[in-house]
What we know:
Elements: H1 3-10, E1 12-21, H2 27-36, H3 62-65, E2 71-79, E3 82-90, H4 99-124, E4 140-145, H5 154-163, E5 169-173, H6 181-197, H7 205-209, H8 221-234, E6 237-238, E7 247-248, E8 255-256, E9 258-261, E10 264-267, H9 276-286, H10 288-316, H11 319-331
Parallel strand pairs: 1-3, 1-4, 4-5, 5-6
Antiparallel strand pairs: 2-3, 7-8, 9-10
Helix pairs in contact: 9-10
The structure holds guanosine-5'-triphosphate (GTP).
The site of guanosine-5'-triphosphate has 20 residues, from helix 2.
Family: Belongs to the TRAFAC class TrmE-Era-EngA-EngB-Septin-like GTPase superfamily. Septin GTPase family.
Pfam families: Septin
InterPro entries: G_SEPTIN_dom (IPR030379), P-loop_NTPase (IPR027417), Septin (IPR016491)
Amino acid sequence: MTPRSRRRKHAISQLNLMVVGFKSLGKTSFIRMLFDTLRIRREDNIQLPASLFQTAEKPGDAEAASTKELYSFTLDVEEENEKISLTLVDCPGFIKDNELRLDVQVTEALRYIEAQFDLTLAEETKVKRNPKALDSQIHACLYFIDNANNGLTDKDIRILKRLTARVNVIPVVAKADLLTTSQLANLKKTINRDLKFHQIPVFEFAEAEEDTDIDQELEDGEEQEQTASSFQSMIPFSLIAPEDAIITDPNTSERIRGRQFPWGIIDCLNPKHCDFVVLRNVLLTSHRKLFKDRTLESFYEQYRTERLLARKASKMITKEQKKKLLEDLSEI
Ligand SMILES: Nc1nc2c(ncn2[C@@H]2O[C@H](COP(=O)(O)OP(=O)(O)OP(=O)(O)O)[C@@H](O)[C@H]2O)c(=O)[nH]1
């Protein structure tokens, strides 16, 4: 074992993921499915939020099962021999028919992301820094897109523009089981066209991989290029979450995390049925370090600069200017 791989084996990497999107698109179901596929290292100290297991399979359950407020929980997991402290953050679904409320909800999600930057900033400015300080920054945010729309709506565009200024955003098509293969392919194409047309900088695989060592295992440069572009071609990733009912494979009698229809079974872990397995690998293994690096080097640095400039500007303001500003504000 090389010193590097020995170090890797013992170090615990922190990874913080967030899910956002309009109401009832399957955000909590995705977190539940991800949780269900994890290899938990320490079961003794997990505190799972009750809302994670409130499902809405029966009519009338939807309101009770909807996420009322942002919550997070942390798990010690092991993925490909690496220890990860994984924090999952679930947000209340955005409300479509109230513009003001929608803006407040997006602001709340962004405030949470910025509050984590503030923790890093506070740690950095301490005289004696804590070398074991936790990295609570949100490294990737999955944005759930409603497959009933023909591409991105104006509201999606507005939200995505705000989110992509602060976090690595990965767009996903929710409930892909409701689309045929060609409908899904067309929707992906339209979403990509919309992202490009509106210049929304969601996470890009091809570009990002050029300056990183993530694919060290792939020695052949051509193969590396292919991998990057094949990830990129999957954007937005399609997701299908399993239903509560216990479904078994008729051939093997093994449990399947899936959805059963009169004509067959969808296996959510089958890459032919949806992109969950690929996305899971991207988040937890292949691109984990890249998400973290970009968060620190790009998003945190940008936020830090903005905060320091704002602080400087507020110090430069004279007493008279401050008084006038407060007077003006009280008249509004
Ligand atoms: N057909 C289908 N239904 C799904 C899928 N994922 C979730 N659902 C169903 O959609 C409903 C809402 O799922 P949730 O996971 O609670 O959605 P959410 O986005 O967390 O909801 P809010 O917290 O209200 O925003 C439930 O009835 C789920 O069973 C999916 O992939 N396909």
